[in-house]
Amino acid sequence: MSASSKESGTAESQPSAANAPGLGRSWLASSIGIFASRISGLARDVASAWYWGATGICQAAYSIAFAVPNSLRQLFSEGAFTSAFVPMLSERIATGQKEDAWQLAHRAITIQALAVTAVAAVFAACSWGLYLSGKFAQNETTHLTLYILPLLMPFAVFICSAGAFSAVLNSLKSFLLPSSVQIVFNLVQVLSIFLLAWGGLHNDDLRALYLFCGATLLGGALELAILSLAARRRGYRFRFIPDWRAPVVKELCLRILPGVIGAGVMQINSLVDKCFSLYLGSAAIGGLNYSHRLVYLPIGIFAVAMGNAALPALSRAQARGDKDAVASAFTYAMRTILFFALPCTIFLATSGRDVISLLFARGAFNKVAIQETYWALCFYLFGMPAFCLAKVVTTPFHARKDTKTPMLVSVACLLLNIVLNAILMFPLRQGGLALATSICSWLNIIILLMFNRRHLPQWSCWNAIREAFPLLELAIIAAIITDFAMQYLPAFLPASEAFMGYLLQVFFALAITCAIYLSGCRLLQRPELRDLMSIFRRRKS
């Protein structure tokens, strides 16, 4: 470990929390909300694994069918729409044009809702037509997926509209509620699972699957209602204005279109992975699904929160023409993401099987499901830091209203991912699909950072790499010490097959990893730890 890493927190090379106090506080508020949402989401996954398992046809069909409206949410709400809408809305609010901002929001949310409704109707009609044709009757999973897909498509309308109201609240610097509202959806699904079990419906009963789809729609509708009421309390009263010809709508659509294509490429990429997994069987689908959710637990807590907080901050700095502030906020966001992402990756690499067993190994989630999930997880972990960084590396482009560059990079990564899927899926099964995604994610990050350097010379990619390298060293050292210590713990713990045994093993492994990693950060005087503590002290005072 280089001695020069102790100087990595100098004011010249790295911005501190003091340089970006608003961004740090916004990120913390968003992180708290998303952390609560992800914990409730983890409870939902645990309940789903207990009831549905990871090898049955019903869980595989629901997983793929739900991915379609969920992809529309990321496409028309959290992705391109938010990236184009938030900078325009934040700019108007920052310059005191609140009435213009509300008019923009009225038209944008209306147009979004109409577009999503039309797309959802097309998907539902095509799915039902393919189901009636009977061409996929030989593949029971595909046949059932096509049957329940129309039932889930209204969820896309609910959740995309909820995302639009979240964007309005984020532009008003309200981050806690938008980031935590998914708790409602998760609680509805958990409650529905317990009601299904209490009612005596088996996990392969089609009636249970239909009722679970209904609970999905109810959860999405409740999210929309809560966020619209919250925006109303902050002064925004939505009005339905289907005005396609307004200049502001044309400007928004022109900015959204490249982002829709770019985000659509990434969502098509995810759907392509799931379609490939159909040929590997329901066990591979379940393993890919649960490993993906486990990997995205820390991503959602830290990376998504930072992306939500960074975009309005970078947009305001870009509107002022302050390139130094843009570079400072971007560096701060990347450092903070890697500070959390690297130890999470190393911890799951060393204790992933125990974590899977602790969370999911009960009920219908058997030993085969554990093995299938762990196999995919091993290959997802290679790209986990890239998954985290992907949430923030696009923010400088979106802040300067450039959605074309990320789109072109996404198209290239999609083509490569399809080729790699075809090559890797047969020797590695779902692990090959996960590895292809990881490779393409790293390529996406590297290319975007290279392009970003051209437009933001104040920011140095090499400085960011040099400053992040000590964090990787500390995470690896923590993993080695933890693995060595855990070899002597089983003699003092209950049987490893018992729940308490898994719990204690994961607890001690996590405690040792965190203690070593944070102690090393304190010894090297890492600015990430110092900034985080200063934010907590500021909020407490």
Write the layout of secondary structure elements.
Blueprint (H helix, E strand, L loop, with lengths): L20 H32 L4 H38 L3 H36 L6 H13 L1 H18 L4 H5 L1 H17 L7 H28 L13 H32 L3 H39 L2 H38 L6 H15 L2 H10 L1 H5 L4 H25 L1 H26 L5 H26 L12 H25 L3 H14 L1
Structure description:
With 541 residues, this protein is mostly helical. It is built from 19 helices and no strands. The longest helix has 39 residues, at 282-320.
Structure in a nutshell:
This protein has 541 residues and is mainly alpha-helical. It has 19 helices and no strands.
**Average pLDDT figure:** 79
The proportion of residues forming helix, as a percent range, comes to over 70%
> What sequence of helices (H) and strands (E) makes up the elements?
HHHHHHHHHHHHHHHHHHH
Quaternary organization: single chain
Low-confidence stretches: 1-21
Strand content: under 5%
